[in-house]
Automatic annotation (TrEMBL):
<feature type="transmembrane region" description="Helical">
    <location>
        <begin position="239"/>
        <end position="257"/>
    </location>
</feature>
<feature type="transmembrane region" description="Helical">
    <location>
        <begin position="6"/>
        <end position="24"/>
    </location>
</feature>
<keyword id="KW-0472">Membrane</keyword>
<protein>
    <submittedName>
        <fullName>Phosphatase PAP2 family protein</fullName>
    </submittedName>
</protein>
<feature type="transmembrane region" description="Helical">
    <location>
        <begin position="129"/>
        <end position="152"/>
    </location>
</feature>
<dbReference type="InterPro" id="IPR026841">
    <property type="entry name" value="Aur1/Ipt1"/>
</dbReference>
<feature type="transmembrane region" description="Helical">
    <location>
        <begin position="98"/>
        <end position="122"/>
    </location>
</feature>
<feature type="transmembrane region" description="Helical">
    <location>
        <begin position="45"/>
        <end position="61"/>
    </location>
</feature>
<dbReference type="Pfam" id="PF14378">
    <property type="entry name" value="PAP2_3"/>
</dbReference>
<keyword id="KW-1133">Transmembrane helix</keyword>
<keyword id="KW-0812">Transmembrane</keyword>
<dbReference type="InterPro" id="IPR036938">
    <property type="entry name" value="PAP2/HPO_sf"/>
</dbReference>
<feature type="domain" description="Inositolphosphotransferase Aur1/Ipt1">
    <location>
        <begin position="89"/>
        <end position="250"/>
    </location>
</feature>
<feature type="transmembrane region" description="Helical">
    <location>
        <begin position="213"/>
        <end position="233"/>
    </location>
</feature>
Length: 278
């Protein structure tokens, strides 16, 4: 399934369309059009969205910054000393061959689609506070995580021999190291952004009042968090740090969104309804 990033992009696009439809119960292309109009007619959202893209690009080039720094620290033994072989026992308990490709799909494809779909769903519902809040929360997640990746490197569990963990990702995605690894550093573990973003999207969805999305997003989030242990990628410590980061980012993101939109006449009605609900 994963012969190149082109295939992954195609799967991502198809799943985004599906989630936009299921999450908003509207034409997914309508959601995309409303989002584009917001970018065109709202300078505030354009600046916010551009800031989010810049932060995501920072994460993309973080590996280059890391190589340039030549920082030799490794905190993996300290993490192992705290939790031991938790992930090893997790894999022993849950490993099932037919489950592996499903979890790889959630880890690689669904992870990014729930984030993209969130913005589109809130645009379709004209739930501006949550749309802005999602963008703010993503920025917070990455701005907090990137310094840890640079100055607190922790290797993935499977790569640390004493942990005795199998990298099941290769069972369904044999070319992972060649195709996907350039986007995901081997020592970019703490905190787990797969956890942080999944928790952020889920927490916002539950509070958004969008019924279908408040069910779909948390289910996807739980499966993604399950996959980080099953596939042998993250430590329990990574997940717990990601959980705290995701909950914090979602709360701060909503506060920043409300403050941003407070005096904007285009959002007065939705701001009032949102404040009345929560």
């Amino acid at each position: 399934m994963y012969q190149s990033m082109t295939y992954i992009s195609i799967y991502t696009s198809l799943v985004v369309v599906l989630l936009l439809w299921l999450g908003s119960m509207q034409n997914p292309f309508k959601a995309a059009w409303i989002f584009v109009k917001e970018l065109i007619f709202s300078r505030k959202f354009l600046i916010l969205f551009a800031a989010m893209v810049c932060v995501l690009l920072m994460n993309k080039y973080e590996l280059q910054f890391e190589n340039a720094m030549k920082f030799s620290g490794d905190f993996t033994p300290d993490i192992f000393g705290l939790e031991g072989r938790f992930v090893h026992h997790f894999q022993q308990l849950f490993y099932t061959p037919w489950l592996t490709p499903i979890l790889v799909f959630f880890y690689i494809v669904v992870f990014q689609t729930i984030l993209i779909s969130s913005v589109g769903i809130y645009a379709a519902k004209k739930n501006w506070v949550w749309m802005y809040g999602t963008c703010y929360a993503v920025i917070i997640n990455y701005l907090v995580a990137i310094p840890f990746y640079l100055f607190f490197p922790v290797n993935e569990v499977w790569h640390y021999a004493p942990a005795q963990v199998t990298f099941h990702m290769l069972d369904a995605f044999p070319a992972f190291e060649e195709i996907y690894r350039p986007l995901s550093g081997l020592n970019n573990c703490f905190p787990s952004l797969h956890t942080a973003i999944s928790v952020t999207v889920s927490a916002l969805a539950i509070r958004s009042g969008v019924k279908s999305w408040s069910i779909i997003a948390p289910i996807c989030g739980v499966i993604i968090v399950f996959s980080i242990f099953y596939l042998g990628v993250h430590w329990l410590s990574d997940m717990l740090a990601g959980l705290v980061l995701g909950l914090t980012a979602s709360t701060l993101g909503l506060r920043l969104a409300r403050r941003t939109l407070r005096n904007d006449h285009r959002y007065v009605d939705t701001m009032r309804s949102g404040l009345n609900r929560y």
